[in-house]
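Lecture notes, continued. The same structure-token format from the folding unit now serves as the input rather than the output. Read the line below as a description of shape only.
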């Protein structure tokens, strides 16, 4: 038996190709999940998964394919939670660019939803606070649909493979979507999406805000992805009792936390919003008002030999008592 030769190192062109595909696949996967939330196993999701996601993965380099296969194998063969988390950590450390690309692509859908609803709020002349609320509502809707649809798609696929009818698989998908949709909606309200909507973030300097936002997003995404994995598998158990609903949950949570941290920190740096330090109202001039001109003070009078007193008026003109204005 001969060990397979390791894949050759990638060229810069291959690196760029792999990165672009990773971003596009993550964004397309979000659309597919949202469609599954509406109807598990729908034709749109099937087309996206086959013609965009799968086709994109097939077009990536052998190095990337090998890295992803190794990650899947290590998660599958992991012994418990720590083994799964170890596989995630190893993958992220060894493939930082792919991980960042996946994080960026995953945020495309929610980001567009926030901006679209925010623009709609502006068109409706809702005012600054109304536009912010509209944008955050878009983030809630996108978060709920994508998380719930992800679980629904998993449950539908596993149930179908186990022999469930179409109606049974759809029902399993809908059941699986409920809890993840709630968690995803909460994340959309209070996660990185709110920064795009114009809401207040953490206080402090740029680095401090990025670290705080990244940590917050990591916790939210970790919970969301773990719940999504669990619910998707749990809902299919009536049709396949051999399914372990906890399998892969730690890996999903760990990957969600890692990518969420990247997304949160990036969103904080891009928005550059320092919202925790408000100006002192006592030192501010109210809008529409101007600072009063400084008091010019009294007229200055200086003695001058033979000419009486030289007087300096408020306009700065020096005059003697005999001075006559022109004209």
């Amino acid at each position: 038996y001969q060990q397979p030769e390791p894949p050759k190192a990638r060229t810069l062109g291959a690196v760029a190709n792999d990165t672009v595909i990773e971003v596009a696949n993550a964004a397309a996967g979000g659309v597919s999940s949202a469609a599954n939330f509406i109807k598990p196993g729908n034709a749109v999701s099937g087309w996206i998964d086959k013609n965009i996601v799968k086709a994109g993965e097939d077009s990536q380099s052998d190095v990337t394919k090998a890295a992803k296969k190794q990650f899947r194998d290590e998660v599958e063969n992991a012994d418990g939670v720590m083994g799964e988390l170890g596989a995630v950590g190893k993958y992220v450390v060894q493939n930082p660019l792919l991980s960042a690309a996946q994080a960026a692509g995953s945020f495309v859908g929610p980001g567009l939803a926030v901006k679209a609803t925010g623009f709609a709020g502006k068109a409706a002349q809702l005012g600054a606070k109304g536009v912010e609320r509209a944008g955050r509502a878009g983030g809630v809707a996108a978060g709920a649909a994508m998380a719930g649809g992800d679980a629904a798609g998993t449950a539908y696929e596993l149930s179908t493979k186990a022999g469930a009818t179409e109606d049974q698989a759809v029902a399993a998908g809908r059941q699986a979507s409920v809890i993840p949709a709630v968690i995803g909606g909460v994340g959309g309200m209070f996660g990185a999406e709110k920064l795009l909507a114009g809401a207040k973030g953490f206080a402090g300097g740029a680095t401090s805000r990025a670290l705080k936002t990244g940590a917050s997003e990591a916790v939210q995404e970790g919970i969301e992805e773990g719940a999504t994995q669990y619910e998707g598998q749990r809902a299919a158990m009536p049709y396949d009792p051999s399914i372990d609903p906890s399998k892969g949950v730690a890996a999903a949570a760990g990957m969600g936390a890692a990518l969420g941290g990247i997304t949160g920190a990036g969103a904080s740096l891009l928005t550059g919003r320092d919202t925790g330090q408000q100006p002192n109202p006592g030192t501010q001039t109210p809008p529409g008002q101007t600072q009063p001109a400084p008091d010019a003070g009294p007229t200055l009078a200086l003695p001058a030999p033979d000419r009486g007193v030289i007087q300096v008026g408020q306009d700065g003109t020096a005059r003697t008592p005999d001075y006559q204005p022109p004209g």
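Point for the exam: Residues 275-283 have pLDDT under 50 and may be disordered.
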